[in-house]
């Protein structure tokens, strides 16, 4: 879905993941130039990407499954604590995709989803997403959050290859806007006189 000159397909790996990943993408994100959920969906074997705000069919589909919502909350379990609770093949990681506001909208439209046990990423993580300002410390892109979770659950570094097309995507965007524009708009630097 990118121009041929900016195609990322050769960089996208084909990785086997035991933990099933379900990405619930807000419709506004589908055509976004920096759509990281699509990179995850293309690079993982055991993943599904659904687009929408309302997912009424999903509640019945998930009945009886061990499903975890990757979204911060008061009772959220740090992903590292989940390692000992079940085998990866039994786990389902549900990841809302969109801005924080849009992700909250998905939870609001699907109250049963908000009732699932939650996972958080833990402290001290820094996003590589140099083109978007994070709303707070530890806020990662959808792709980065999935990579962090899967690396924690299934083996450190196993899913780092998913970050290659992500880095290339960011580098291409910076190159297209020009280094000076990037520095001014994203790093807050002012041009030297």
From TrEMBL:
Keyword field contains tRNA processing: yes
* InterPro entries assigned to the protein according to its UniProt record, in alphabetical order: DTW, DTWD2/TAPT
Which keywords has UniProt assigned to this entry? S-adenosyl-L-methionine, Transferase, tRNA processing
Q: What EC numbers are recorded for this enzyme? A: 2.5.1.25
GO molecular function terms here?
tRNA-uridine aminocarboxypropyltransferase activity
Which Pfam families does this entry report, sorted A to Z? DTW (PF03942)
- Gene Ontology biological process terms from the UniProt entry: tRNA processing
Q: Which residues form the DTW domain?
A: 1-178
**According to the lineage, what is the superkingdom?**
Bacteria
Q: Which family does it belong to?
A: Belongs to the TDD superfamily. DTWD2 family.
Protein name per UniProt: tRNA-uridine aminocarboxypropyltransferase
């Amino acid at each position: 879905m990118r121009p041929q000159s900016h195609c990322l397909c050769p960089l996208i790996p084909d990785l086997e993941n035991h933990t099933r990943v379900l990405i619930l993408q807000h419709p506004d994100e589908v055509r976004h130039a920096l759509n990281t959920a699509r990179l995850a969906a293309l690079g993982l074997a055991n993943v599904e990407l659904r687009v929408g705000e309302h997912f009424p069919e999903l509640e019945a589909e998930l009945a009886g499954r061990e499903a975890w919502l990757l979204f911060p909350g008061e009772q959220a379990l740090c992903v590292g604590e989940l390692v000992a609770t079940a085998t990866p093949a039994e786990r389902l990681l549900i990841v809302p995709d969109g801005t924080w506001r849009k992700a909250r909208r998905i939870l609001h439209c699907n109250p049963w989803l908000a009732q699932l046990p939650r996972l958080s990423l833990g402290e001290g993580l820094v996003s590589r997403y140099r083109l978007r300002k994070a709303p707070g410390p530890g806020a990662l892109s959808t792709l980065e959050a999935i990579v962090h979770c899967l690396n924690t659950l299934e083996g450190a570094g196993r899913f780092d290859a998913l970050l290659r097309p992500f880095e290339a995507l960011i580098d291409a965007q910076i190159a297209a806007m020009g280094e000076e524009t990037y520095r001014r708009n994203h790093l807050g630097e002012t041009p030297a006189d």
